[in-house]
Description:
The structure holds two protein chains of two kinds.
Chain A: E1 14-15, H1 18-25, H2 30-68, E2 92-99, E3 104-108, E4 111-116, E5 124-130, E6 137-143, H3 150-160, E7 166-172, H4 181-189, E8 203-209, E9 214-220, E10 232-239, H5 243-246, H6 254-263, E11 298-302, H7 306-318, E12 327-332, H8 336-344, E13 348-352, H9 358-376, E14 382-387, E15 390-392, H10 396-409, E16 413-417, E17 434-437, E18 445-448, H11 449-456, H12 469-474, H13 476-479, E19 483-487, E20 492-494, H14 504-510, H15 532-545, E21 547-548, E22 568-575, H16 582-590, E23 601-602, E24 605-610, E25 613-621, H17 643-657
Helix pairs in contact in A: 6-8, 7-8
Chain B: H1 2-11, H2 18-32, E1 37-39, H3 42-50, H4 52-57, E2 75-81, H5 90-97, E3 101-107, H6 110-113, E4 118-120, E5 123-131, E6 134-144, E7 148-151, E8 177-179, E9 184-189, E10 192-197, H7 200-208, H8 217-226, H9 233-256, E11 261-262, H10 264-273, E12 282-288, H11 296-302, E13 307-313, E14 316-323, E15 329-337, E16 342-347, E17 353-359, E18 364-369, E19 372-377, H12 380-388, E20 408-413, H13 419-422, E21 423-425
Helix pairs in contact in B: 3-7, 10-12
Amino acid sequence: MDEWKPNPAAKPHKKRSWYLAWKYKLMNQRALRKLCQTGAVLFLLVTVIVNIKLILDTRRAAYEEEEESAQDYDDEMLNVEVPRHPVNNKKVLDVEVYSSRSKVYVAVDGTTVLEDEAREQGRGIHVIVLNQATGHVMAKRVFDTYSPHEDEAMVLFLNMVARGRILIFTIKDEGSFHLKETAKNVLKSLGSQVAPFLSWRDMWTFVGKKGGEVYGEKHAKSPALSTWGDPVLLKTEVHLTSVEDAECHWPDTELNRRRKRFCSKVEGYGSVCSCKDPTPIEFNPDPLKNNKVFDVPVAVIAGNRPNYLYRMLRSLLSAQGVNPQMITVFIDGYYEEPMDVVELFGLSGIQHTPISIKNARVSQHYKASLTATFNLFPDAKFAVVLEEDLDISVDFFSFLSQSIHLLEEDESLYCISAWNDQGYEHTAEDPSLLYRVETMPGLGWVLRKSLYKDELEPKWPTPEKLWDWDMWMRMPEQRKGRECIIPDISRSYHFGIVGLNMNGYFHEAYFKKHKFNTVPNVQLKNVESLRKDNYETEIHRLLGEAEVLDHSKNPCEDSFVPDTEGRVYVMFIRMEQEADFTTWTQLAKCLHIWDLDVRGNHKGLWRLFRKKNHFLVVGVPASPYSSKKPSSVTPIYMEPPAKEEGAAAVPAVAAAEQT
Amino acid sequence: NGAAVSRVRGSQPGQDSSRWHVVRKFLGLISSHNIPVYLIDPLILALVDKDIEQIRSSPDGPSPECKYFCAPRDFTTFALLDKTWKHEVGLFRTAEKMGFQWLKVINKDPRLDGMDDLSGMEIPLHYIFKLASHAIHLVVFYERSGNFLWHGPLRLKHHMDRKFVPFRKLHFGRYPGAFEKPELLLVSIDDLKVQIPKNPSSFLEEVSHSRFLECRYREARAFFQLYPDDTSLDAVEFRKKAKSLLHLATQTLNSLGVKFWLSSGTCLGWYRQCNVIPHSKDVDLGIFIRDYKADIIPAFQKAGLPLKHKFGKVEDSLELSFQGEDDVKLDIFFFYEEDDHIWNGGTQAKSGKKFKYLFPKFTLCWTEFVELKVHVPCETLQYVEANYGPEWKVPVKAWDWKSSPSNVQDNGVWPIDEWDNVIQIY
């Protein structure tokens, strides 16, 4: 179990036979291609059916046997061991690389390791990294160097690959438009002769060893702007080295054995696999005194973004008071690489067969993960729920340890969340301050077991309802007027850019400038004032002390708030009833905070900071705090944008609701 | 510790101290890795139990002879709570250096089995450490929902050495088992410091009835494929109430020390769908009449469950019904054992008619149900089939307790003069 296996047939490989080579020669003969395709589809269908039947039969048979042999100590059920592929002793690998407008493929020793002929996808330079001793695939990436900045990502990636690895490149469609000098030079330094002259719609394949010899390169120039270069097929041989040469010689410890297993399988994680002074994989942060969340299980919800997961787990394991034994990573799908990351850190991971699609899939994954968490830790009263694209603050557990008793004792609470939706660089100031909010921010939060078991789990949306779990949890039927506790300065940071409901623009606009606490051991202020009744007293005290701002000025202007520090100011906006957020939304927009839906409110009150002053916004007359408004003050009303602008904003809102 | 060794050796010419040595080495191994184990070996605990008063009163006293760990046997069995150690590989390297051969038995994690399509890492269930002719069997216990400990079955995989030890002689592993979380006591026996269950005799009693049945999660999933689960608000509410009623009943009966099992619809729900059947409207339990206690009724009343009706009498067809929260009822049927079958009775209030429900004989197993450790008949299929017939897999909403069950028999009529006693409705 623990010894390292040099060449497990890890990736599911498709056998590439002579027939494919033949097929490519006949590429341009349409009728034949059609025939081949139809034949292939039929064959596939039959194979799938036969296989499913076989699986079902074996399962049933296996189960029956298990029941019968319950008296025996023989494990009949599991004796269908998959025969291991014999370890390939050959010292030479045959490599085939194909580049064309509509298709790329790479075959290693007759096994397809990359095949992409999807339309309108996979444009750019495909890179495959092979282990130089075993020949197996350690990383597969595609960089759309037709688009800006992707070449920088490629350079970053190539720099992280260890010396000695085999690199395979092939272009699909177009890969030169935004391939800048720096990137071309890196390719050149790898031994490519063509890279510096790659141009519009050229086809290109290259195989070489990082920091070593070149095994082959082929190139086809595009004859004219409107056409592509001819497809190129590069066939070459790669000489394998011995396993010893391919590995680093780290001292033999349990940690390094994990590191070795990881580094011989995957690439692209940089210094964790450096032979010299690799970055640590165990962090031993200071323990927390009187840690109330030491025994609280932590569920990390993950998909197939192993590099994100790697970054996330590093920050989580570095947080003071973390208890690695309570962490379980739930991976949505049978992905190997995220599991490799989990094992690198010595954590436990659980894979989840995907059910349903998109948002519903995420939602089902959440449910399965939460149920499993409470099954695995039956004594737990709470669970911490994290996602793979979060950085975790160094005092994350300290923050929870100081506040978790509220969730246990105050029935009017729904959750504790590490995330303040309105906590941007320019609107959050005080790491010791907590709020009560009527929204459920997610992004690093604590769930009470009784809430889950008694209320949420039994009526969790079923797969056919394509709902987001978080939107569902925010619905009044579930939340039932309860509130969440959040910090002024977030204890998590959302770094994910690629995601189901995420893109670069969206991230830049709404997440990048979020404030994130980096101060250790913050002592939270006046935690008891967060209890239901105490909080009202606290708000009344604050409002009593607050100076009313000049309502004749434009609240969007910086000058609306005086150039002071540490003061408390209040402004009143128009809010006709509980659900009237017209003015608030406009105000949020001009303050550059979350404006896509309403977040962070408590009884028609919002709390944030402006110019280092506490800044309160009260919605009049809907808020019960309206009575604090001096009669001379007219609540500010801000017009919603004109119709067409509103229409344009709709897709953005839709996107936001899924975040 | 050399002096102790020689003394033990010297003082016991008749006894074989090689087992003692293996145990001592093993205890040294695990204490060097800070792994808390406790002794669960039935043979040794039975010996210990005889002298328990003396052992308790002198926890550090030197032993004049090797009385326990030298007793003839092939194994010594210890338990390990999974959550108290970190699965360090270092333990096994040290073990090897000390001369131990070891074997690990892993399998699926049953706590994830009930879940749709989750596959975790396999978990270690048993370890065997062998040194010369003696072996240590280390059983790994896991905490389960329902506040109890579970150990897995010992099943050898294909590539494993079947002759590593005489597996059939092991005390644990033939079946999975369920146990209460034991209170532990640190004692010194035969000059070895070791943790044992504080009350060895009750632990030994538990061992003999520890067999655990996992719910049939796979079949339950198949059932829900055919008959999608009812997730309406009513169903959710009923399940919640049934669950809390079952929790209350379990607590009440356990505190009286009365053994019970899931019966009728509640048992069917467990067996068929691993959940409460939402349209069943009550919770059904079975109790052997020999376990009947007069304080059952007052205990339930004290727990806030008033008696709704009482049919029959202790000698014949006793049946109690308690009123739970909002219309959810708790029915307790008492079972009478005959030579070749077991039966319970039913009574129709308005006519005084008696009914008899026959079951093949069964034994009791533990299971986990709605976060509780409860009993079910081990021979569940026969039990359910007796009650619901071969079509038990098909949900039926209209159920008549007098005619629908396939094991119902007419059993005459109560004499009129007994009616006041055997038909009590509140």
